Amino acid sequence: MSTVVNHWINGAEFVSTSGRTSPVYDPALGTETKRVALANQTEIDAAIKAAKDAYPKWRDESLAKRQQIIFSFRELLNSRKGELAEIITSEHGKVLSDALGEITRGQEVVEFATGIPHLLKGFYTENASTGVDVYSTRQPLGVVGIISPFNFPAMVPMWFFPIAIAAGNTVVIKPSEKDPSASMWIAKLWKEAGLPDGVFNVLNGDKESVDGLLNSPDVESISFVGSTPIAQYIYENASRSGKRVQALGGAKNHMLVLPDADLELVADSAINAGFGSAGERCMAISVVVAVEPVADKLIPKIVERMGKLRTGDGRRGCDMGPLVTREHRDKVASYIDIAEKDGATVVVDGRNPQVDGDANGFWLAPTLVDKVPTTSKVYTEEIFGPVLSIVRVKSYDEGVALINSGAFGNGTAIFTNDGGAARRFQNEIQVGMVGINVPIPVPVAYYSFGGWKQSLFGDTKAHGVEGVHFFTRGKAITSRWLDPSHGGINLGFPQN
Ligand code: NAD
Predict the structure, then answer these.
(1) Which Pfam families does this UniProt record tie to the protein (predicted)?
(2) Residue 430 burial (CB count, 10 A)
(3) Distances 303 to 346, 389, 466 between C-alpha atoms, Å
(4) Which of 285, 279, 291, 258 is nearest to 322 (CA)?
(5) Spatial CB neighbours of 148, under 8 Å, sequence gap ≥ 6
(6) For the chain, what percentages of helix, strand and coil (3-state, to nearest 5) are there?
(7) Which residues, 6+ apart, have CB-to-CB distance to 442 below 8 Å?
């Protein structure tokens, strides 16, 4: 019998009795290693109730005490992140060094949240009108819901919960059913760090759990990260019921290469951003837009580097691991078939890979496709795998127009040594995160993360100061001085 990953409710494992489960695989072995519980309405209600009951006490806890708990959590996480990395690799498949990298990026937000007393400070203006002072405060919302994707089972939840908890909210997180164990490990770590029971709850499940969070009048906000169709669904439904929503969606990120670029840097960057985490990153580079005549010089440099990449089990020091499930591997591989049918040139074909791993793993090696028609699904759809496309354009302007015509606007990059071109690109490109000679421009945790267009619904962005704003509501208070001379009836609009 497989192990069942249950829920974590009110500071303890909550054994599911829903009778519904979903398989969790070790993608490098290609075998089911666990099953994850899929919550029913009773379990959804129990998780939300635990968070609701814990809220008044946690909200009233002093900032000093909250800060100490966040510090303890940070120390525990930092000293034991190797354990979490192993869990991530065993369910997601990404190589161990990459799993550690994801945790480190999430830990940045935990560290940011340790400064919460400073971040929650309000403003005060004395004598705004005669004898009247005005000030503002930041107050927590209550129970907040987090719904996360499979590709960053630790980092994406950590974009949200450190700030939400530090600000005095209580959390129900619904992890991806493909890799649910990271959230359970994190829940136990919070308990060890001294977080009161009920402040951090894990609700495992599928659409039913998501809808349970969206429909509950006790959940004040939803932070979602995942694919665009689901992000849009979440945005529409959660905002209809009056919740705050930040819903981050899919991506199709381009890297524009001008003829004057440093092609060694470009080739290294294309490899890192195209094939890191097997391309299962929302900030992965999916398309290299080569301004002619650069493509013919660039492609051999990329191909040479691809030849050195080792695909295999993430526990064996390989460069790239498997894809998350067999279905996802097959879907990604089908885009290589489409590329061939649509007249593109498959320069490096990853469909029959040599791997350092079990033959049953969900493998697909790095693939490079040149001359991809921009009408092909290979170009228009998010592939989310190790398939890098090259599109050749005649000019900078044609490249920018192409990138701006896309449905997504998550990340992009320009590679050039021309400062003027870089400056123009930064202004002209309609994308949320822009790199100049940096292929994956994920901002550090004290800046906000998020794309434009179909890559983000809602007007807030994850973490940073905007994260603090999202998880709190501001309150402006006007206060009159206790001076009897200001009394008496006055029907006019308050003036100075
Ligand atoms: P997904 O949309 O399939 O799932 C995300 C979450 O939504 C999961 O918790 C899942 O259980 C839930 N879900 C799935 N189907 C649902 C439905 N019909 N109704 C309600 N809930 C549902 O995404 P995924 O495959 O787990 O993750 C990959 C996607 O996430 C990619 O598109 C990637 O670009 C995107 N992503 C975006 C960012 C970003 O910052 N913009 C970051 C990471 C991943």
Answers:
(1) Aldedh (PF00171)
(2) 13
(3) 11, 13, 41
(4) 279
(5) 156, 157, 173, 174, 175, 176, 183, 224, 225, 226
(6) 40, 25, 35
(7) 105, 283, 411, 433, 449
Say whether 282 is catalytic. Answer: yes
The whole-number pLDDT of residue 137 equals: 95
- Tens of pLDDT, residues 180-218: 999 999 999 999 999 999 999 999 999 999 999 999 999
Closest CA to ligand 1's atom 35 = 226
Distance 206 CA to ligand 1 centre (A): 11
**Ligand 1: which of 210, 211, 329, 448 to mutate, judged by most atoms within 8 Å of the beta carbon?**
210
Query: What is the pLDDT at residue 1?
Result: 60
Task: Compute, in angstroms, the gap from residue 267 CA to the centroid of ligand 1.
Answer: 30
Going by alpha carbons, the residue nearest to atom 16 of ligand 1 is 207
pLDDT tens-digit series, residues 318-328: 999 999 999 99
**What spacing in Å lies between the alpha carbon of 275 and ligand 1's midpoint?**
20
Question: Is the CB of residue 140 less than 8 Å from the CB of residue 168?
Answer: yes
Measuring CA to CA, which residue among 451, 477, 476, 448 is closest to residue 163?
448
Cα–Cα distance measured from residue 217 to residue 52, given in angstroms and rounded to the nearest whole number: 11
* Domains parsed from the chain with CATH numbers: 3-248 (3.40.605.10), 253-486 (3.40.309.10)
How remote is the CA of residue 429 from the centroid of ligand 1, in Å? 26
Confidence (pLDDT) at 493:
73
In the reported structure, the alpha carbon of residue 169 is separated from the centroid of ligand 1 by a whole-number distance in angstroms of 24
Q: What's the CA gap between 256 and 469, in Å, rounded?
A: 34
Task: Please report, in angstroms and rounded to a whole number, the separation of the first and last CA atoms in the chain.
Answer: 74
* Below-70 pLDDT ranges, the chain: 1, 483-488, 494-496
- Bond prior to 293 in cis (omega within 30° of 0): yes
Residue among 150, 173, 203, 384 to mutate when testing ligand 1 (max atoms within 8 A of CB): 150
Which residues have any ligand 1 atom within 6 Å of their CB? 147-152, 156, 174, 176-177, 206-207, 210, 225-227, 230, 233, 248-251, 282, 382, 384, 410, 451, 455
pLDDT at 486: 58
User: Which residue among 195, 282, 288, 403 is the active-site one?
Assistant: 282
